[in-house]
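Figure S7 source data.
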Amino acid sequence: MEILGFIENSLIDWDGKISAVIFLGGCNFKCPYCQNYLIVKRDKALRRYQLLDLLEYLKNNRKFIDGVVISGGEPLIYPGIFDFIRTFKEEGFLVKLDTNGYFYFNLLSLIKENLLDYVAMDIKTSFKKYHKAVGRKIEISLIKDSIELLKEGRVDYEFRTTLVPKLVTKEDLLSIKEEISGAKRWVLQKFVNQNAKSKIYQRIEPYSKEEVERFLSLLKSDNKIKEIYLRGY
Ligand code: SF4
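Tokens for the predicted iron/sulfur cluster complex:
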């Protein structure tokens, strides 16, 4: 378990909550627009944090912190993720998981064991373009299974899509909407090009607010998703 980043308190990583954010190194995907690629490749220059130090900080500051966000990278690559999350739950903290949704069976077990209070799952793009967005071949049925699992509503959740031009077009958004139809919440996030892994993506400008608002009103027109909103605009 490599802890390669820690934010002591954040107002933007869990809507409505003050959270501490933990970034675990490594990921099974290779998204070319990844903002956290130094964490993904476990860059040697990154500081390594110790779990006991983070726990001590959390315990000393529990009055100000509602919960812990476990992010990455992809936290579910670690078999030890169960004990890791249990550590925070046993101390009384709420836990949010950020995940790309590919480790369906780990997600299922975490939910069954009541170890999660909120899940934010990425939906990268339409299923037919998924391999482009994640930089490798994948078994799309695992993503579909995770979508259906979250839609059951055993844990509070959001699906989230980063609006990367070319990878996520109006047509892709319409396709995603059908795939997640009936979902509780879908968040459309602004793409930030500065820190993108690939130089090509560093040159791609994000959609303008006007374009994104047009997408939003189109997606909201038939109420197939209960709540859709923008983040970062
Ligand atoms: S899934 Fe997330 S952390 Fe992993 S490569 Fe893609 S954007 Fe980066």
